[in-house]
Amino acid sequence: MEWLLHFARDATDDATPLGAFVATLPAPTKRRPKSSSERGKAFRARQRQYELELEKSLRALRDEITSLEMQQRARDSMRMVAFSGSALAKIVLQYHDLFRNGLPGHPECWLVGQKRPLVSADMQRQVHRQEEFISRVMHPDAVVGAAIGPDASIQQWRLYSAAHHRIEGKVLRTHVSGSPGDLTVVAHCTLRVRISRDTVCMLFPHILHDEALVHRLVGQEVEYHAVKHFHFTPDGRIDRETVDVNFVEGLVRAGLALNDVMQLMSTAAITSDSMIEPKREASRPSSRPSERTELVARADCQMPHTEHPKQPKELPPPKRVGSRLEDLLTVDDDS
């Protein structure tokens, strides 16, 4: 403690070095105590500054919350589209995988008096699975071409299958368009078929009198390119199915002359939406010499009766594919 006392004495003694240094230091100013009014004003200023900073922080926080909510909604929307789109595209892929080789005729749909083919139990189960799948994924009022209902799709599959010796479908790619709850799956497909005399009878009966053309056509392997659109309801059911098969391009690529293709498609039993007409109206009497030949050829065609017992409701009749030259020569890529 002595050194501390000695230090205090030296600090107050100007003769010592420490005291001389302390003497040079400025004397501390005495602060005037603030009045009550000044203290109140200072307090209010500090309070106002605090409030301003707090409001600024709150605005920044609100802006951040709004931005995060928008990002979350965008992510949710994208996730919904991706999930819904992938799920619906998977349905379309399952659909085409199940029907990749067409749909055999229903056992009750063969002509009376015609020898019925031997249908195995496995084939019967396959047909049942196909019909059940269509009924499950399609809306009861789904629009298919010019008809309404799942049976319209089943009927077209049977007609396409009955009209060809062999049929094999393949999906090349799919993509999804639209917004959640209003999605459309677009499928780009190929349909490889082998043309038989049934093909001529069902699709091109107007050339039966031209045996040379029939001979050139029967046995041909043809690969058609098709674009299918499946529109889905919010609950994931197909309510519209449209098909665009490029018959002209497929027949030309198969090696047929363009004149032959134009003759085939001029009055083919195929509508403008690529649907096969299940029935053909009786032709009016003709005086051409080949009429008897054509009638005999028609009689030789044992055309399978492929209509399902439960007929689909029909819309107004569509245009024929061959009604205009543009329909024959136009190659539709995709919309």
The residue-averaged pLDDT reads 79
Total count of strands: 7
* Secondary structure tally, helices: 11
The proportion of residues in beta strands is 15-25%
Order of strands in the sheet with most strands: 3-4-5-6-1-2-7
Q: Strand pairing plus helix content: what structural class?
A: alpha+beta
pLDDT < 50 runs, ≥5 residues: 107-114, 281-296, 303-309, 318-335
Q: Distance N terminus to C terminus?
A: 101 Å
Order of helices and strands: HHHHEEHEEHHEEHHHEH
CATH architecture of the domain at 77-108 and 122-280 and 290-303 and 314-329: Roll
Protein name: BZIP domain-containing protein
Biased composition (Basic and acidic residues): 276-297, 305-327
Region (Disordered): 25-44, 275-335
Organism: Pythium insidiosum (Pythiosis disease agent)
What characteristics describe this protein?
335 residues, alpha+beta, Nuclear Transport Factor 2, Chain: A, 7-stranded mixed beta sheet, 11 helices, rod-shaped, disordered C terminus
Structural overview:
With 335 residues, the protein is of the alpha+beta class. The protein has a domain at 77-108 and 122-280 and 290-303 and 314-329: Nuclear Transport Factor 2, Chain: A (Roll). 47% of the residues lie in helices and 18% in strands. It has a 7-stranded mixed β-sheet with strand order 3-4-5-6-1-2-7. Strand 5 and strand 6 form a beta hairpin. Helix 1 crosses helix 2 (17-24) and helix 8 (247-253) runs antiparallel to helix 9. The longest helix has 63 residues, at 36-98. It is rod-shaped, with a radius of gyration of 42 Å. The N and C termini lie far apart (101 Å). The model is unreliable at 107-114, 281-296, 303-309 and 318-335 (pLDDT under 50).
